[in-house]
Structure formats: structure tokens, C-alpha cells
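Late entry, written up from scratch paper. The run itself happened at the end of the previous shift, but nothing got recorded in the book at the time, so transcribing now.
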Amino acid sequence: MERHQISETRTPRSNVVVQRRRKSKSYRLSYRSGLGAADSRLGWSPALTARRLNTSRKAARLSNIAEKVDPGQLALLVKTEWQLSYVTPLHQFRHTQLKSYSRQLSAFIAAGKQQGLAVEVEGLQTTFRVSFSVVQGMTQSDEDAESVLIQIHSKRLFANQDEPQKPVWSGWLTCVNGNPDYLHSLPKGFVCLPLFGCSGADGLSALVKSWFQQSFDCCFGPLEISHTSLQWLMALWTNCHAESGIQHLKMIWTVPAAPPLQVTYTVDPEDAWELWSSVRKEKEKRGGGGGEEEAGENYIDIEEVTRFMQGLKSHFYRHFRLDLSAGTLNQVSTALGSAKYSGRMKISNSRYMITTLTLLTECALLKMPI
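Output as recorded:
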């Protein structure tokens, strides 16, 4: 029987270091066999496919994105938990053709329904209506392509004529602060929107991906949020506590045991902030920061993230004699958002979503097949 809810609220500063015994695995997948013509046209650059997750990044800053993005679109993006995937560059995708894409995908779903594919949602359905729309205001650089929101509406087969259709599936494609070297290397005719999120019936998700693959010679793949990326999110969100209280810092670990042990580790926000502040001050005492910070930019590096995690794990070990370094971090959450290793993500605060999407865009680009 699984054991749950081992939690602790006090996280004092500590110099004790718990050595990690289990290195994070690489989940890079190869899709060469399924890429076909798209792979040959792209001509992937070996220099770019060898990239790694950045070891330094800007701290999250308050953003006025709510003033730029349509309120209805932003509300959908923020309130929904999304299943993430990566998608390779789209060949001959045109933002000016979204109305045509809406009709084409609607017809594709109708054809799939006639073939008996699993596209039913909450009982008998009649036609599905698809809408594509541009999410203006999300781009952060000249190289980023405009984000695209996709919604599928339907209604019950025997619904009243005046009953409106309701949304049964949503998805979006985005690129926020994408790697400029990679984006510049793409041949003409390709649009890079590497991060894909969807929410709704799996049957509809499969049909939407299939239509994109057939229409734009692209390839989808699962986007797990790795151990290192989860740690980055913890640090970035905790660093926002002074401006927007994180309310809690919650982690879920799986520790190898017989049976496997699931540990829920919840830290009081003030204690998490105190520990994080001590890590930042220690960097200042050592003279860290470099020219970028001296120029006014606030950067966080991987060493700080590692020391923050070591402090949390050391405290847990002193109290419970359980070394979390032997386990796997599966989930993190604060009032700003939550993320799971399985690729499920929820952004709960739009003011910091650009920083979160920047990290996730980077993760998606790194998952691109070689």
C-alpha cells in the first residue's frame, strides 16, 4: 500500500549537502522513421541538436501580458490544465489561412466520425465546429511566430435549435523566446511553434494531431517535464514570492521501495523564501552575477537552483532519515502554477506566464528529433 503525506513546513537554512545518487535520465526520442519528407526538407543542423538546457536564465518578472492578449483567450490559457507535446516545424503553415484550416479540420473530424473513430464527447454528438485564432501579444522576439489557439465546439444530437454549441476541446501552439540560432536555421516555408498544449477528449486530440501531421508534414511527441526543469520551475516561482505570494511550495516525490513510496513534501512559503534568499545572498557574497547583472538584469543560474534543492532535501533528511536524492521528483506546485513529469501543466498567474512558457519552449525545442 502506498504511503502518502509525509510533509514538513519548516525549512531552515543548512550547509548540509545530500549527494544525488540518481541522475536524471535522458528521454530524447528518435522519430526518424516517421518524419519522412519533412525530415529531409528540414536538414537538421548537428550543432543545434546538440544543445542542452540553459544553465542561466532571467528571473521571472511581472508582465503586462493581460493588456496585450485578448481576455477570453488569456482566461482559457490560464485556467486550464494542459497536456503538453512538442511539434516539429510546420511546412507551409500560414497564419493568414486560419479560416480555411478551420473548415479543413472540421471536415477531417467529420470524416473520422464516419469511420467510427473515437470522437464522441459526453454522449451523442452531431457536427463539430472548429475555430482557429491568433493569440496576439504572446510573442517576445522578432523570431517568435504568433501563437495559435484552436477550439472545437459541439452540441447534443437532440439539442434545441437555438441551443449554442459548447467547447469540447481546446489546444494551442506557441513559441516564446525560441532559440534564435535554431529559428534562423529553418529553411524558407517552415513555421516553428514547438510547444503544443491540449485539453479535452483523447480521441479529438489524436485527430487534431493527425490532421496537422498530414497537412504540414510535422511530427508530434510527448513532452515530459524533466527532473531538472521541475527544479527550475520551483526556483523561478519561489523567486516571485516577494511580489506575488506563492502560498505554498509542494513537491511530490517517488522513492524506490517495496512497495514504491510516494512522498508529499509541502513547505511554508516564508520558509521557502528564506531559504531561497539565503542562496541568492550567498551568490552575492561570492561575487557572482557577472556583467549581465551589473547591467541591471536579474539572472538565476543552475548552481543556485541546485543549492536550493539541496537545502530542501537536507532538511527533509534530518527529520525523516529519508534521502530524496534517491527518488524522482514527479510534481511541483505553487499558487503560480503546477507541473507534472508526465507533461501536464497549469499556469495560474498570467503575470509570470511568459517566463514559464519560455522554459517550456526551450524544453520542446530540445526534444526535437535528431
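The mean pLDDT is 83.
(Scratch paper discarded after transcription.)
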